[in-house]
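Design job #97: recover the sequence.
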């Protein structure tokens, strides 16, 4: 190829192939939906669906893109992104053999769309996008959920994951509310995975046909399922859900799932389902940072309290001391707010607040009570090496990198000093400080390392 005769498609074909070889999962999630539009001198313009998509590419994957565009036909290319180009829907996954026995449901007549549908009754009215506090730890998940509500099918499936109590259900129900507000005729089904399981097994126990269950989840425009990891070990329901997924996906209906872990971390689940869950967009919902927690508390103070609002010093105390999840933060806030409303805010002190919230603060302390040894063993198991390797002198990359990650996690998840951590690894404190600086740099350069650290943190904090 000659750089002067290349088309936009020629350049993108080479770059996309490089991206796919480097990380196929990232390629499927982000790069395969980009469309080459034009090539002007050394600048390749790529079409993406929206500003959110463009911001993720430029913020998170600029280095990968730049590297992939270097040295093509002896030329180095730059790129720019142009929002507003929705890719054509991907072909439906091949159905499972068992699905052949189930006839396809015919498409609903167009006139049926004109009939307004009642909104889902099992969603909280306050769970809207307007009431969701956005921070660095959840902005991608928020933007993806909002796009899915505004343009169902652009990100399909959308898979949101994160620890309990960080806002996944809020986002899921916000999508439900937004879709119904924008198009009341659309059929939206929101359910927890446990609710689907109960419906499924109740029909089995009553020896009834599963057609009623299948109709309730297939005859929809948008399906939202909370805590999909509950499918683990449920072999019969996994088969049913696999066929359901294929049916909805083939009809380009929006599917949104939440879980407390990534698809690859769900044990005892069919690999075909794991592959389906990973085939669209996955986004993490992280625990809110201090500033976001403070903003959430201020929002609650305005919405929940009117007669006896808590002073800022109490909100700052709560934000600083309860960081694991929003659910526990709200429980602590309501407890303090209730006390203040009965006794008068001017009579409440920080010391009294500590006493009132003794159990919540103890739970927070226990959540942070992770030992150095448990981190060492967990990291070793994750990377397929031994504890002796972690503590030994081997300097090969397959050992040195996990060792450095273990040191970094010890600084992140324990209250031990760098000297104490160094002693536990047989190193000096300078080595620990080096790991503390180096690992975040590795995370920004290597998506696999970043995901591994996120997974390890969740695993350690779950105990």
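Job complete. Output follows.
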């Amino acid at each position: 190829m000659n750089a002067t005769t290349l088309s936009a498609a020629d350049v993108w074909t080479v770059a996309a192939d490089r991206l796919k070889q480097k990380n196929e999962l990232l390629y499927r999630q982000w790069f395969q939906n980009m469309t080459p539009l034009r090539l002007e001198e050394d600048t390749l313009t790529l079409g993406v669906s929206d500003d959110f998509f463009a911001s993720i590419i430029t913020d998170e994957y600029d280095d990968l893109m730049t590297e992939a565009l270097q040295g093509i036909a002896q030329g180095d290319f730059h790129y720019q992104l142009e929002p507003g180009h929705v890719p054509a829907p991907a072909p439906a996954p091949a159905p499972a053999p068992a699905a052949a026995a189930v006839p396809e449901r015919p498409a609903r007549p167009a006139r049926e769309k004109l009939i307004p549908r009642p909104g889902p009754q099992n969603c909280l009215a306050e769970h809207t996008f307007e009431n969701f506090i956005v921070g660095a730890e959840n902005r991608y998940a928020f933007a993806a959920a909002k796009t899915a509500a505004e343009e169902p099918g652009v990100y399909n499936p959308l898979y949101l994951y994160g620890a309990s109590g960080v806002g996944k259900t809020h986002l899921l129900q916000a999508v439900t509310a937004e879709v119904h507000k924008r198009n009341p005729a659309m059929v939206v089904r929101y359910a927890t995975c446990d609710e689907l399981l109960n419906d499924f097994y109740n029909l089995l126990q009553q020896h009834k046909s599963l057609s009623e269950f299948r109709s309730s989840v297939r005859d929809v425009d948008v399906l939202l399922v909370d805590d999909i990891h509950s499918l683990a070990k449920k072999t019969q329901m996994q088969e049913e859900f696999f066929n359901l997924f294929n049916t909805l996906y083939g009809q380009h209906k929006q599917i949104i799932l939440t879980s407390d872990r990534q698809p690859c971390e769900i044990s005892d689940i069919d690999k075909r389902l794991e592959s389906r869950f990973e085939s669209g967009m996955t986004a993490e919902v992280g625990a809110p940072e201090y500033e976001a927690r403070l903003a959430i508390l201020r929002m609650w103070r305005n919405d929940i309290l009117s007669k006896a609002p808590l002073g800022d010093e109490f909100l700052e105390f709560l934000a600083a001391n309860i960081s694991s999840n929003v659910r526990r933060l709200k429980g602590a806030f309501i407890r303090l707010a209730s006390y203040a409303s009965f006794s008068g805010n001017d009579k409440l002190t920080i010391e009294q607040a500590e006493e009132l919230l003794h159990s919540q603060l103890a739970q927070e302390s226990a959540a942070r009570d992770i030992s150095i040894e448990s981190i060492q063993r967990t990291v070793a198991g994750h990377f397929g090496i031994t504890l002796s390797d972690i503590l030994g002198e081997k300097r090969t990359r397959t050992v040195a990198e996990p060792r450095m990650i273990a040191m970094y996690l010890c600084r992140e998840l324990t209250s031990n000093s760098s000297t104490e951590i160094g002693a536990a690894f047989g190193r000096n404190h300078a080595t620990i400080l080096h790991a503390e600086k180096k690992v975040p740099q590795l995370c920004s350069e290597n998506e696999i390392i970043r995901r591994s650290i996120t997974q390890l943190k969740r695993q350690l904090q779950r105990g």
